[in-house]
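A further point concerns the way the authors explain their paired sequence and structure data. The central task, working out the structure tokens from the amino acid sequence alone, is never made concrete. I therefore recommend that a typical entry be quoted early in the introduction. An entry of this sort, consisting of the sequence and the corresponding backbone structure tokens, reads as follows:
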Amino acid sequence: MHPKLRNLDIRPIVYEGFPYILLRDPQRLTDQQLFVPQPLATVLAFFDGHHRLDEVPEVHRRFYGISIPDDLVHRLAEALDEAFMLDNDRSAARRAEALAEYRSAPFRAPALAGAGYPDDAKALWNLLQDYLEASDVAAEAVDWSAPIGLLSPHIDYPRGGRVYAHVWKRAAQAAREAELVILLGVDHYGADPFTLTRQNYATPYGVLPTETAIVDRLAAVLGEEAAFAGELRHRGEHSLELVAVWLHHLREGRPAPVVPILTGSFHPFMLNGDTPSADPKIGAVLEVLRRAMAGRRTLIVASGDLAHVGPAFGGAPLDAAGRRTLRTADEELLDAMRRGDAAGFFSAIRRVQNRNNVCGVAPIYLTLRLLGQSRGEPAGYAICPADEQNTSVVSVAGMVFQGEKF
């Protein structure tokens, strides 16, 4: 047996005063989570598919100079296998089963309803209306001779509610009147450039039907296997769900055809010298979407937060000077968005190797590309706390874009 970890969400935590590594499965083959004592975390590095299980203790000892009992390594492997966290036949069979369950369901069920926001439609309506009524902005008139875009946060509603309300209230007419909505969200746990689904998206207000004809055309240019390899990540990914709820709210529960697309990291472009504008796969996807948008009132939603800085994200504690520096960096990105400058936006990110961990790079860039020569109107900004010490923050912003006439 050559144990190999699947692509997992791995993060350090402290539980009852002791340090652990928390392992969670983004594809949710099971809802089980594993707490691995921190001293055992180094063993996981050798669960890479290249080492036999019985040789891991000796390889670990040679590499780290620390002896780990054989039975402890075997128990760790058994626990990982039981939780479907190893890349093997057992997890592959469970994935096939889970995928069949997901695709045969009438819709993609809301993952956060009842936890991140109310699962009761009336209670949800009251919550979001309270946010909207506290905002003093007015809806912008819409020129449907060109597509409309918006940047929305996907942070939790309690922290981002003011910015959500600001941008969605500005875009209320566009949300109500759109005949097609393209949802571009961050894939937090996948590296695939694009991950599609043909499944409908449900909210407590009902169901937003997925425009499968457009999904089929996208799959044709991406390749069926590549387009749906990470489809199960749609089940638990919050970036599309949280904006879909706001869309459905502004439409007063009326459905609208949507194209839900998870977008992977642009990190490779920051290392290999290439640019997203030269990538043929990105170009092909944008062309399919542009053709689908022609002749239809189209709203493009970029679901993305901005900076993630401080100890909660592996950085130094943020002080007042750090916050000012962060605000300046965010302003540069927002200025590029206002100009509709996709290349300038990405250049500003790459120049600093995304040191502020901007979460919405791909959705924002792709939205700007789809809109063409657009102009953006700011619609809210906030720096939100991300730890109890207030030394880690997430910055979020909203913007409404008027696109280029076809």
User: Anything to note?
Assistant: The mean pLDDT is 95. The longest strand covers residues 375-385.
